[in-house]
Amino acid sequence: MADLQDEPQTATAAVGKFGDFGDLDALGDLDSLALPRTGASVEPVAGSLERARELLAAHPIADGLSGLAQALRDTPSHDIEHGERTLETDIPRLRDGGVGAQFWSLHTPSGITGDGTLTATMEQLDLVRSLVAGYPESMRLALSVDDLADARNCGRIAVLLGPVAGPALGDSLGTLRAYHALGVRSLTLAGTRWTQRTGLTSFGHEVVREMNRLGIVVDLSGCTPETMHRALKVAQAPVVISHHPERVPDDVLRQLRANRGVCMVPCTAASLRETADHLDHVRDAVGPESVALTGAYDTGAHHAPDLADVSCFPRLIAELLDRSWPEPDIDALTWGNVYRVVRDTDFVARAMQDRRSASTARVTTLDDM
What we know:
This protein is 43% helix and 12% strand. By secondary structure, it is of the alpha/beta class. The chain is built from twelve helices and twelve strands.
């Protein structure tokens, strides 16, 4: 029996070529920043690129969104171990780019609806788990913050499963719990009947609370500002905005900072400089503890020549060094903030489960009296 208890609502997220989130080409639309759109290459100051690589060796990139799962499903013949130039991601370029962790999106292609969404999501989940198991010397599945740390310490690239698209829940908390049991650690709320233009329904509140209890990161990408505000009021754990198609309003960013959440800036502007400008804006608006990076590679989104694939992250870090970003801010941007979100999400889940266990024990004791 479905858990949905509210009146059906019209989904608010647009349907685009990258699943029910919407057209990720829109991630490059930073017109509100009033910047010139140019694809000209950027040459870092001598020494900056070398220093960027040194920093990433110590604090690698935790990439907020990769579309590799869907790309591999559409490319049955591939060699990501030695290099796959038909894609924007492979293991050698992940190494060159200083990437230490990635969230692998399980969003499904546009046009799939109903039970087909669940089936397609499960197939992608199976593909990712099998792929990671096939490269144990390079990748490691991360189901907790301890796994994330262990992968980094062992020189492996941590793969976190998610985000799953909200519609793939089928309006069922039981399905959410099943996803968690299979390793999913992030889910986007957009595109469902329980996210409205004016906020969340009561069932949407239940979804957020259950995600917190399980230890699944709440991703607000694609939601309306009203839904973001409401979810941030309900959430007990930090939330993320990993791949929003337009600039996140400053009032949402301020509430995100109070939540200790993170806005992940996608590398999809018309130029490397524009991506750096967007990072400057978020850091200036809410501080270095609330900003991280999303590559959005293999999603079909546009990337500037200097950020053409996952190996290009050091060039972006070099640009930030040239802009006098202090190294602690860069450490937070690349690894620290995402690691903290995963850590705090795990902590909140354990605390909520402990409280539930203690409450159950008290009820049992009273019944025995």
